[in-house]
Specification:
By secondary structure, the chain is an all-alpha fold. It is 81% helix and 0% strand. It has one domain. Keywords: Membrane, Transmembrane, Transmembrane helix.
Length: 313
């Protein structure tokens, strides 16, 4: 009976974490869109602000004794910090050199790449039925993006690099928490300033730094307040991402990412009257079916493995 209660609590915590991530992720998508449209704040510079505010937020949390920092060797976090910067840079380059449809289609490939990395590099096994859930999810993304898919060589190179680096980043977020025996706050506390420093070096190659349109340019008070609010929400998004990956898996987080994509599309249709074609509606249904199937199979497999452990003498 006690184990059942513990299991229910565990599932409840994960559900609450996913719901929190969903809410703050949707908030930041629409807030960032507002910042880009109404203030024209540069994309990578905004990501830099997000990570600086994330580190400051964690520093305050540490001072309030919400968590205790753990001394970690920088060499152990170097690849994680680099992969984050690569993920930001290549994702932006993919978006710049591809249509939205091609960009979204490439992002959908992250899930199978994560499964491949975990299978071949970490000897993690996935059942056939879990792998089959990728079919309706990928089909759903293709239906959503079909009329906007256009291929060009440079765009495909950036998209492929973006998928590979993003997949590695998400796998390493989970692997480093287990390897270094740290929680999400402890890991992010050390990774955030390293990634901020690396992004600070990368930003001048892609965006202006000073003057009109630069991160240190003459911005209005309202623009700066919106950017700061975006940074605070990003702190919550980053923390919840690390917590979800650490308590579930990179694949589960990625599946949840597809769900957020569907909710954002549907939210745009309901709130902003964005056009939603029959193809997109079918794509959303296909993706949601794949996610529900994945969730059902994953939970039943977890229950089966726990029952086997309980039956051992």
């Amino acid at each position: 009976m006690a184990s059942l209660v513990d299991r229910m609590r565990g599932h409840g915590r994960i559900a609450a974490g996913l719901l929190f991530n969903l809410l703050v992720s949707i908030c930041i998508v629409f807030l960032n869109k507002w910042i880009y449209v109404h203030h024209g704040f540069p994309n990578m510079s905004l990501t830099l602000v997000h990570f600086v505010v994330t580190w400051l937020g964690l520093y305050i949390c540490q001072k309030l004794d919400i968590f205790a920092p753990k001394s970690l060797p920088p060499s152990k976090l170097l690849l994680l910090a680099l992969s984050f910067c690569g993920f930001v840079v290549f994702t932006n380059l993919s978006l710049q050199n591809n249509t939205i449809g091609t960009y979204q289609l490439a992002k959908a490939m992250t899930t199978p790449v994560i499964i491949a990395i975990q299978t071949f590099c970490y000897q993690k096994t996935f059942s056939t039925r879990i792998q089959l859930t990728l079919i309706p999810i990928t089909l759903g993304v293709i239906l959503n993006s079909y009329y906007d898919v256009k291929f060009n060589f440079l765009g495909m190179v950036f998209a492929a690099l973006g998928v590979l680096v993003t997949s590695l980043y998400q796998v390493w977020v989970g692997a480093k928490q287990h390897e270094l025996q740290v929680n999400s706050m402890q890991l992010l506390y050390y990774q955030a300033p390293m990634s901020s420093a690396m992004l600070l070096v990368a930003v001048p190659f892609f965006e202006p730094v000073f003057g009109e349109g630069g991160i240190f340019g003459p911005w209005s008070v309202s623009a700066l307040l919106m950017v700061l609010l975006s940074g605070v929400i990003a702190f919550m998004v980053n923390l919840s991402i690390y917590w979800i990956i650490g308590n579930t898996s990179p694949v589960t987080y990625n599946m949840f990412g597809h769900f957020k994509f569907c909710i954002t599309l549907f939210g745009g249709y309901v709130l902003f009257k964005d056009p939603l074609s029959i193809n997109q509606a079918l794509g959303i249904l296909c993706t949601l079916f794949g996610i529900l199937a994945y969730t059902h199979f994953k939970l039943s497999e977890q229950e089966g493995s726990k029952n086997k452990l309980a039956q051992r003498p």
